[in-house]
C-alpha cells in the first residue's frame, strides 16, 4: 500500500514546493519523500519486469528515467541561467560515467563478493558497450575537434546529423536487444557453484550436497512466483512513471539548496549537475544492486549500459530539436580531462567484457574511475 501512496504524495509535494522557498522541516520532508520515491520506483519496476520479462523490464526502467531526465534538461535550458549552455553535456557525461563505472562497478562488486566471480553474457554486454562508446564519441568528443563553428559545438547541420545518427543507433540497439538477439542479453547459462556440505538425510556418512542459503530460497521463490496480472502491471507502470517524475521533480526542488551548498563550499558549478544526476539515477542504482545481490549480473549490466545509451540516444535528438528556439550556444564538446576519462572507461570496459566474467579487481577499477570523475568534478 505504501508503494502506491508514496509516488502520489511525492508528486503533490513537488507541485506544492515548486519555485518556493522551503523551511528546514520542508526540506526534510522533501528529502524523505525523495528517498521513499526511489524505493517505490524500484518496486514497481520489478513488478513490470516480472510481467514483461527480460530484457524488456530493464529497458522500461532505463527509458522511463531518461525520458523524464531529458524533460528536466530541456526545461532548465529554456529557463536559462548559469551553465545552461553546457547543461546537456554535463548531465549526459555524468550519466555515462556514473552508469558505466559506478553502477556497473557496484554490480560486479556485489556479485564478486558473494560468488568469487561475476558471470555475464559477453555478446550482449559487448554490443551494449560498443554502442555507448560510439554514441559518446560522436556526440561528446567530436564537437571539441570540428572546425565549422568556433568552440566545442556543432554547426546546425552537424547537430542534425548527430541527432539522427544517435536516435537511429539507439533504435537499432533496442531492436537487436529485444527482438533479433534477445538471448544475448539474458543471464549467461550455467549453474552457480555452491560449497558442498554433508547431507544429514543419509546418516553421518551421507553424500555431499550443494549448500543452499536463504538468498537461494528467496531467488527460487521469486522465479516461481505468479506472474502479475495485466491490470497489476499497468498500475505499477503508471506508478513507476509517477515515482520517477517525483524523483526528478524533487531533485529539481532541492537543486537550489544544492547550489547554495556547492557555492558555500567553493566548488565548481558543474558539481550541481553531478549531484542531481546521482539523485536521478538512484532508482536504477538500487535496482541494479538488488539484481546483483540475487546473482542476476546480466540484468544489472543491462540497466547500467542501457541507461547510458538512452541518456545519449534520447537527449541529443531532443536538444537538437529544442535548439531551434533556444537562445545562446549549445556546447557539447568535452574538455581534455573528460576525454581522457571517457577513453579510459572505453578501454577498461572492453577488457572487462571480453572474458564474460569479472572479479573484484575489475569491479574496483571501474569504481576507481567513477571516484576519479567525481573527485575531478569537484577539484578540476
Automatic annotation (TrEMBL):
Entry membrane topology: Multi-pass membrane protein
Pfam entry (one): Na_Ca_ex
CC annotations in GO: plasma membrane
Superkingdom of the organism of origin: Bacteria
UniProt subcellular location: Membrane
Every Sodium/calcium exchanger membrane region domain range: 29-177, 236-377
Molecular-function annotations in GO: potassium:proton antiporter activity; sodium:proton antiporter activity
Family annotation (InterPro entries): Alkaline_pH_Ca-Antiporter, NaCa_Exmemb
Keyword Transmembrane: yes
Transmembrane parts of this sequence: 29-49, 56-80, 92-113, 125-145, 157-176, 233-251, 271-289, 301-325, 331-353, 360-379
Keywords, comma-separated and alphabetical: Membrane, Transmembrane, Transmembrane helix
Name of the protein described by the UniProt record: Ionic transporter y4hA
Organism: Nonomuraea aridisoli
Amino acid at each position: 500500500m505504501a508503494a502506491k501512496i508514496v509516488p502520489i504524495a511525492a508528486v503533490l509535494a513537488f507541485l506544492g514546493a515548486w519555485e518556493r522557498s522551503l523551511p528546514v522541516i520542508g526540506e526534510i520532508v522533501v528529502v524523505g519523500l525523495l528517498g521513499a520515491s526511489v524505493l517505490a520506483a524500484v518496486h514497481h519496476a520489478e513488478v513490470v519486469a516480472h510481467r514483461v520479462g527480460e530484457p524488456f523490464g530493464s529497458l522500461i526502467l532505463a527509458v522511463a528515467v531518461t525520458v523524464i531526465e531529458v524533460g528536466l534538461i530541456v526545461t532548465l535550458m529554456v529557463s536559462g541561467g548559469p551553465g545552461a549552455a553546457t547543461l546537456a553535456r554535463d548531465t549526459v557525461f555524468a550519466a555515462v560515467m556514473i552508469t558505466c563505472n559506478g553502477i556497473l562497478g557496484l554490480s560486479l562488486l556485489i556479485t564478486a563478493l558473494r560468488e568469487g566471480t561475476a558471470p555475464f553474457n559477453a555478446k550482449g554486454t559487448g554490443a551494449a558497450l560498443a554502442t555507448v562508446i560510439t554514441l559518446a564519441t560522436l556526440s561528446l568528443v567530436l564537437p571539441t575537434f570540428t572546425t565549422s563553428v568556433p568552440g566545442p559545438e556543432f554547426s546546425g547541420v552537424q547537430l542534425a546529423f548527430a541527432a539522427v545518427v544517435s536516435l537511429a543507433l539507439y533504435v537499432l540497439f533496442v531492436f537487436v536487444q529485444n527482438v533479433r538477439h534477445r538471448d544475448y542479453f539474458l543471464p549467461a547459462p550455467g549453474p552457480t557453484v555452491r560449497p558442498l556440505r554433508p547431507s544429514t538425510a543419509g546418516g553421518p556418512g551421507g553424500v555431499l550436497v550443494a549448500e543452499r542459503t536463504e538468498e537461494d530460497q528467496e531467488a527460487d521463490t521469486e522465479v516461481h512466483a505468479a506472474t502479475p496480472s495485466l491490470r497489476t502491471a499497468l498500475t505499477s507502470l503508471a506508478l513507476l512513471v509517477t515515482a520517477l517524475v517525483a524523483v526528478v521533480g524533487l531533485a529539481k526542488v532541492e537543486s537550489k539548496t544544492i547550489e547554495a551548498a556547492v557555492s558555500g563550499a567553493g566548488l565548481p558549478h558543474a558539481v550541481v549537475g553531478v549531484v542531481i544526476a546521482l539523485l536521478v539515477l538512484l532508482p536504477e542504482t538500487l535496482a541494479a544492486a538488488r539484481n546483483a545481490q540475487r546473482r542476476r549480473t546480466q540484468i544489472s549490466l543491462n540497466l547500467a549500459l542501457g541507461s547510458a545509451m538512452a541518456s545519449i540516444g534520447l537527449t541529443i535528438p531532443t536538444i537538437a530539436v529544442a535548439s531551434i528556439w533556444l537562445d545562446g550556444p549549445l556546447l557539447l564538446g568535452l574538455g581534455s580531462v573528460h576525454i581522457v576519462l571517457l577513453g579510459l572507461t572505453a578501454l577498461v570496459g572492453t577488457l572487462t567484457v571480453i572474458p564474460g566474467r569479472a572479479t573484484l579487481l575489475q569491479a574496483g577499477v571501474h569504481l576507481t574511475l567513477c571516484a576519479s570523475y567525481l573527485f575531478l568534478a569537484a577539484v578540476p
